[in-house]
From TrEMBL:
GO terms for biological process: monoatomic anion transport. Keywords: Membrane, Transmembrane, Transmembrane helix. One of its GO terms (cellular component) is plasma membrane. Residues 40-469 form the Major facilitator superfamily (MFS) profile domain. It is found in: Cell membrane. GO terms for molecular function: transmembrane transporter activity. This is Major Facilitator Superfamily protein. The chain crosses the membrane at residues 38-55, 75-96, 103-121, 127-152, 164-184, 196-215, 259-282, 302-320, 327-344, 356-377, 389-417, 660-682. The keyword Transmembrane applies.
Length: 733
């Protein structure tokens, strides 16, 4: 190792800058005390939680986004693909954190994310505007992913690395938890999805201020070494005085492109396939396949993310206590395989309940926590074995790999699961029609539409009956509801019938009675009168009918011809009928012409109506009029067109999601053999032996540095290597 002297400042305290300069000059020349270090770690974890809350929020409101912007599900998936691709590219760029530091990158990233949420999304009214905003969030995420993980590594010795990384990995998981918790508890009150981003943006500004004022990082000469235990601090600081940082940073990616690093990054990326599905698409999966509400779908995430959050902390403590990582990864991988298989099984059963999924998602979250936290610790230790000065570069390789897998897995989704688009775009409308809750219709119309949705044959039957009883339907439509009810209650009541005939003919009940009596006493005469057209009837009574004067011969001839044709009698018989008609008293004849014929025809109409089967009348009364409504017809045409498509999608959706979940199982299986590529012991006894050997090495190295680094000061006393009083190394717990 080069002995080039470190030329950085040597402050009297942990903070190398004062005043306003503290806002951008954040390097610490000494390892901070435990309390200060915990503060920096907490800020790093908090910013990670915040960012992933903002990034995953689109999943929680995905259905509302699709409906309000009109974008297709494939477009929505492609937005996720482009965002993940942007994240992958910026993950590579984040390798510059090894040369330029981490804290400023994190702080600026938090501010940009907050502004995107607070300003960008509320102004995004269309699909493309949403795409731009979400791509920006993805680009920021790739950078923060690497920078915050590097900060956590810098401040945590290997013996506590799993706990520290467990806290860091809480960021993505807790971000998912916060998203689920906020959306599930506010979905019923906040109907505009953009208001959710306003909340996220305001929280982001608060965290930005906290990061700006208090977040710090180690100087390069300190962070570029391996810190195994707290006792290593004095040794690391002593080495830092002669560390050549530039030499350690030459050709960074060539130093990191080894099978243990790249292979491990690929392994965890495919293992977390089910995690990315859960983060991005579980809400829409539960809504479209099982009909859960937005709040219910997000509440299921609360169970999974809450369990995983607790598991990451507890498993990290256990892993550090035992000194091993790999056994936890193996158990977590096996648990993830089993629970994903259970998820596949229950996805194929449409009646799966909410709490059945809870019983699956809780152990799934536990399994992911078992594997991921220890893996993060083991991966950073694997990177350190290659070159501790390139931690951010190693993490950027992981960031690129994991985001590439996310991009590919997201891109594949609409080709594997093709049913989401009809279920999201047309499913709610079809469901409302089928349930009888279409907002465009009133209660009666919704009831009819609901019945037709259950039995489409209703429409054909209604059309057939309407054609068969067209005249009767017209008659029924001319009667008031009260008269119809009276006829139904007392069909044989003569006064009720007379009242109904009066309504149909527009005459009084007395006129109805008189017309009926005349028709019964003069059957042939009234039949003859009704066979004549209105003009001929009027012509008969215009002259001195019934008097001694004759009727116009032309009118008589015309009337005789009509009787012959209509009644199908001989001309002689027609003349006899006409003579008998004209022999009626003048008042009776004029009454029959002016009112009687109309009354008798109405009576015939009522008789025909009464002959219609009651069941047919009831059916037409329930459905006929409603089905003639234009809005109802539009709704039924939409249901006829989109209903089968939505129904087929609902039937196909479970199988397609199962296929997608099988890809996740394959990734979990691939993860297991890749565990063996990483550094670290399998047995706690081996880990304890390695730790003891390391302590002996540290003591020997400190002794050697103390003996050789003895330049003569002005007092003639050799200088020794040790920390300031506040920085004395602590014994391992």
């Amino acid at each position: 190792m080069s002995t080039a002297t470190y030329t950085g400042r040597s402050p009297r305290s942990d903070d190398p800058a004062t005043g306003v300069a503290r806002l951008w000059r954040r390097e610490l020349a000494h390892f901070p005390a435990p309390r200060a270090r915990l503060t920096y770690l907490s800020i790093a974890v908090l910013t990670t939680i915040l960012f992933y809350y903002q990034y995953y929020l689109i999943s929680g409101v995905s259905e509302q986004v699709l409906q309000s912007t009109g974008m297709s599900f494939r477009f929505f998936v492609n937005i996720n693909v482009v965002s993940a691709l942007a994240s992958a590219l910026t993950s590579v760029a984040a390798g510059v954190c090894d040369r330029y530091g981490r804290a400023n990158v994190v702080t600026v990233g938090v501010l940009l994310c907050a502004l995107t949420c607070l300003v960008g999304f509320p102004l995004a009214s269309g699909a493309w505007a949403v795409a731009v905003c979400y791509t920006l969030l993805g680009a920021f995420e790739g950078t923060v992913l690497v920078a915050t993980a590097a900060l956590v590594r810098d401040f945590s010795p290997q013996v506590g690395r799993a706990t520290a990384m467990g806290f860091w990995t809480i960021g993505p998981v807790a971000g998912s938890l916060v998203t689920s918790a906020v959306v599930s508890n506010t979905a019923d009150e906040i109907h505009d999805w953009q208001d959710q981003y306003v909340i996220a943006g305001l929280v982001g500004l608060a965290v930005f201020v906290l990061s700006l004022l208090f977040l710090r990082e180690l100087a390069p000469t300190l962070r570029d070494q391996v810190l195994v235990t707290e006792r290593d601090r004095a040794l690391v600081e002593a080495r830092a005085r002669g560390l050549d940082v530039d030499a350690a940073l030459r050709r960074p990616y060539r130093q990191m492109l080894h099978v243990d690093i790249v292979g491990s990054a690929i392994a965890i990326s495919v293992f977390l396939f089910i995690y990315f599905v859960a983060v991005g698409f579980f809400p829409i999966f539960f809504q479209t396949v099982f009909g859960f509400s937005t709040s219910q779908a997000n509440a299921l995430g609360n169970w999974m993310w809450g369990t995983q959050t607790v598991a990451l902390i507890l498993i990290g403590l256990c892993s550090d206590r035992l000194g091993v990582r790999k056994p936890f990864m193996l158990v977590g991988a096996l648990g993830a395989i089993v629970t994903t298989l259970l998820l596949i099984d229950r996805t194929g059963q449409s009646g799966t309940s909410y709490y059945t999924f809870v019983a699956i998602l809780v152990p799934l979250g536990l399994s992911l926590g078992l594997a991921f936290g220890p893996w993060m610790a083991g991966f950073t230790e694997t990177v350190e074995r290659r070159n501790p000065a390139l931690t951010a570069t190693g993490l950027s390789v992981w960031g690129l790999t994991i985001r590439t897998v996310v991009t590919l897995s997201t891109f594949l989704l609409p080709y594997v699961v093709t049913t989401v688009n009809p279920l999201v775009q047309d499913g709610p409308a079809v469901q409302a029609i089928v349930a009888g809750t279409d907002p465009r219709l009133d209660a009666t119309q919704n009831a009819v539409v609901r019945a037709v949705a259950a039995d489409p044959g209703i429409v054909d039957r209604a059309q057939t009956l309407a054609e068969r009883y067209q005249a009767e339907i017209t008659t029924a439509g001319a009667l008031s509801r009260a008269t119809q009810e009276a006829l139904t209650a007392k069909p044989d009541d003569l006064m009720v019938q007379a009242g109904a005939v009066g309504e149909l003919s527009g005459r009084s009940v007395d006129d109805v009675v008189r017309a009926v009596l005349l028709s019964e006493s003069h059957v042939d005469e009234t039949a003859a009168l009704r066979a004549l057209d209105p003009a001929t009837r009027q012509a008969l009574v215009a002259g001195p009918a019934g008097s001694t004067g004759p009727v116009d011969p032309a009118v008589l001839a015309k009337a005789a011809d009509q009787l012959t044709t209509v009644l199908r009698v001989t001309p002689e018989q027609a003349q006899v009928r006409l003579t008998a008609l004209l022999a009626l008293p003048g008042d009776d004849l004029r009454f029959l012409v002016s009112d009687g014929v109309a009354v008798l025809r109405s009576a015939d109409d009522l008789t025909a109506l009464s002959a219609v089967p009651a069941a047919d009348l009831a059916f037409l009364d329930e459905y006929g009029t409603v089905l003639e409504n234009p809005t109802v017809q539009d709704v039924l045409r939409y249901l006829e067109k989109q209903g089968p498509r939505v129904q087929q999608a609902a039937e196909d959706a479970p199988g397609q999601w199962q296929t997608y979940f099988w890809i996740a199982v394959a990734g979990e299986v691939v993860f297991i053999p890749m565990i063996f590529l990483m550094v670290g012991a399998w047995r706690p006894r081996t880990a304890r032996r390695i730790a003891a050997e390391h302590r002996a090495t540290v003591d020997s190295e400190l002794a050697r540095l103390t003996a050789t680094a003895a330049p003569v000061a002005t007092t003639g006393t050799p200088a020794t290597v040790q920390d300031p009083p506040a920085q004395q190394p602590q014994e391992e717990g």
